[in-house]
Structure formats: C-alpha cells, structure tokens
Amino acid sequence: MIELKHISKSFSGKQILFDINAKFEAGKVNLIIGQSGHGKSVLTKCIVGLHTPEEGKVLFDGRDFVQMDGTNRKEIRKEIGMLFQGSALFDSMTVEENIMFPLQMFTEMSKEEMQERANFVLERVNMTGSNHLFPSECSGGMQKRVAIARAISLKPKYLFCDEPNSGLDPKTSIVIDNLIKEITYEYNMTTIVVTHDMNSVIEIGDNIIFIYNGQKWWEGTKQDILTTENQEILDFVYASQFMKQLKGKLSSRKD
Amino acid sequence: MIENLGKYFVMLRGVLSRPEKARLFWKSLMNEIEKIGLSSVPIVGVLSVFMGAVIAMQTASNMDSPLLPEYTIGFITRQSTILEFSPTIISLILAGKVGSNIASELGTMRVTEQIDALEIMGVNPLNYLVLPKVIAAVMMFPILITISMALSLWGGWFACVQTGLSDTETYVYGIRAFFGDDGTGDITYALSKTLVFAFLITTVSAFYGYYTKGGALDVGRSSTKAVVQSTIVVLIANLIITQLVLI
Known about the structure:
The complex is a heterodimer of chains A (255) and B (247). The model of chain A has no long low-confidence stretch (mean pLDDT 88). In chain A, helix 4 packs across helix 5. Chain A has 255 residues and is α/β, with parallel strands linked by helices. Chain A has helices at 40-48, 70-77, 95-106, 111-124, 140-152, 170-187, 198-204, 222-227, 231-237, 241-254, and strands spanning 2-11, 14-24, 28-33, 55-60, 63-64, 80-83, 158-162, 190-195, 207-212, 215-220. The longest helix of chain A has 18 residues, at 170-187. Chain B is mostly helical. Chain B contains nine helices and no strands. The longest helix of chain B is centred in the middle third of the chain and has 40 residues, at 72-111. Chain A binds chain B through residues 48-50, 73-75, 77-78, 80, 82, 84-86, 88-91, 101-102, 104-106, 160, and chain B through 20-21, 23-24, 108, 112-114, 116-117, 119-123.
C-alpha cells in the first residue's frame, strides 16, 4: 500500500500541489485523473522520488520515502516498476537487453536465468519472439508492452504508469489497460495509473482520485464517477462531444 | 554562471563514484572506447597528415634567411606539432565531435525520460552513463594525440620530399634535433594537458546534455552549448597549464 500524507509541492514560488492525502491499496488499479497542467504528473513524480515534496510523507507500506537516506531509497526503488508516457526504452539496447537491464543491475542471476525471465515476461505481454528487435523497430503499442515487461521483470511491489495510452489507438489502448489490470491482480501490486483517458477510467479504475488545481478534489470508484454531481468532474468526464451525446442518450433511455 | 559551476561539481560527485556493477561498467567502457576513441582515428589521421604537411611547407616558405639551416623545417614541424597542434587543436576538433555526441546522446535520453527511468530503477544515471565516457576519453585521447603527432610529422616529411623543399635526411635530422631531456619533457607536457582536456571535454559536454530541459530543439541547443563551452574551457585550461608548466 502507498499512502500520501499532506503532500505539497511548489516550483519557483508557484504552488502546484496543495496538501494531498490519499491511500493506494495493493491489488487494485488506482487511477489519478485530471486535466493537463493540474498536477497529476508532479504528484506521481513526488511519489516515485523524482521530485521531493516540500511537505508531507510518501509511505510505501509504512516506510517514509521522503525522509529516507539514499541507501534505503534505493531498496524501495528496486520494488518500483514504472511505465513512462513515451515508454522510455533504452534505444541502444534490444528488447531483450532492455528487459534484462534491471536484472543485470540488481540481481546475481546467470545469463540463462535472465534470458528465461525475459522470455517469460515477454510471453506475458504477448511479445514472444521479439527479443532481438530494437525499440525503433517496434510500434507504439509494442513499445508500451516491452516497457511493461521491463517494469515487471524484477517482480515489483509497486507499478506506476504515466499516461499509458497516450499516442495509442483505442483498440491498442484497451489491450494495454487490460494488461495493466491483469498483472496488478496477478502479482497483487499497488498500481497507480495517471491518465486522462476516460476509457481507461471505465475499463480499469478500481479507485479513482481526481486532481483539480493541485488539490485532491474527489475520490471514488468507476461506478461513482458516472453518478457524481460534482461539476468539475462532470466537466472533465463529459468534455468531449461524444461523451455528451452518450450521456444524453443514456438520460433519454432512463426517462 | 556560479550556479552552473556549483551544479557541475555536484554532477562530478555523482559521476565519480563506484560503479554499481563491474560487468556492466566494463561493457559500457568498451562501447565508449569504440565510440570516442576508435571512431575518431580517421578524422584525427586525416587532419594530422594535412596539418603536418602545411606546417612544414609554411615553415619552408618563410625561411628567407640563409643563416637558418634547412633542418629547421623538421625542427619547427616537430615543436609545433608536439606542443600545440596535436594536443590542443586535435582536442578542439574532438570537442566538436565527441562533445556534441555526448551532449546530444544524454540530452535525448533526458527528454525521452530514459534518464528518469534509470533513476526510478535505483541506478545512478551519472555514474552509469557519464563515468565510462570520461574514462574512455581519458584513456583514448592520449593515444589519439600520439597517433596525431606521428602522422603530422609524417605529413611534414611527405610534403617536404614531394615538393623538394627538403630531403629525408635533413628533415629527419630536424625532427631529432635537440630532442634530449627537453624533448621528452615536451611530450609529457603535451600528453598531460591532453588528459586534462579529455576530462574537461567529456564532463562539460555531459553537463549540458544531462541537464537538458524541453524537447528536440533544446537537445540541439545543449549540443551547441556543449561544444562552445568545452572549446572555451579547453583554451583557458591550455593557457593555465602552459603558464604553469612551460614558463
């Protein structure tokens, strides 16, 4: 479980996050949603330690990540897997080398064991046989799947996904969403997904936090979000013409 | 500027730490030796031959006084090559080639979040990415400069013999003239400053690449800044080292 207590962050005097408290439970897909520029990514970077919050605590199963020294932080980092918006695969390495990199860095596995693990995770993300491709030879969806494979190669306890569907077509997005959901349940990971894709919200959101102007504005499940009366959320959820029409149709059907 | 200097030294602290895994470090080091060292041999070779030839021909054409012996051509070519041309000019050329390569590689890794990925994995990105480059440059630059010295002297000889400005015996005599303790001292001086230049070029370029912010345009800007700044730093270091060692 990851717990946030009173997280605040500012850049050059401008306050970005205001006193955020939240709990992300293990075995659930936790979503952080909100409009661009409202602090979702900053919050995620504070959680994974790429930014240090001015105030507050980030507790990984009770261990305060913010106050920790470098050595202990490193131990927690080994338990974190992260899927970046742009995949962040190492261009100079093949798919297999990308996946084996954390294993080479942090384990004493033999080459055969590492290869076995790489093949296993590649199979898990339906990428069998693509070991020797370079990231530039993979499509956007394939890159995301390789990034997921790399993220889970060390069997992490915590998985972070920063806009996993950005740049993907709706069908591939669903494949990635389902993959995230499946591996979360399979490995009982604490998964946090940052997104503004409403399809993901409905597809995989077990617990949803809505960030608005740097504050935690709302929290609930995917069922709650469709019935909430909160105006900011309604503006966000029904921002597109398609969603507005859908809502209209559903309302008329109800009537 | 003071802020950048502080950031540079903080970066050095991250770079100059013990590598996480010796095997991975060794692999990266070999890659960098190939990229920084071996791939630079052709450009260093071509430049050196032509510059040596030009130095010899310029020296010959400017020797108006009959009191100056003909072996002066070889002597001046040797001194110019060993003292300045090979260590400084070739280092400046390498600042362009290697410096821009390092800055653009790290800059691209930064803007595509590859450095963030390393950090989140618990890897020290500075140590993993920059240290092999620094060590490879410090190992390979002196070798490149030594090759440059030899080829430059060969270029001078070739030009002299082909144009009839001097013969082999006189040119070689000039190259060997007064090359006692002072001569080997010149080589030590040249190679010592090469080591300093190698360190400065790689770390200054890495600094601009590593702290790139933004997108593709900013990677280009970082690369340009890296070349300009490392060139200036090399020139300043050259002045200081010359003042300290030779004067």
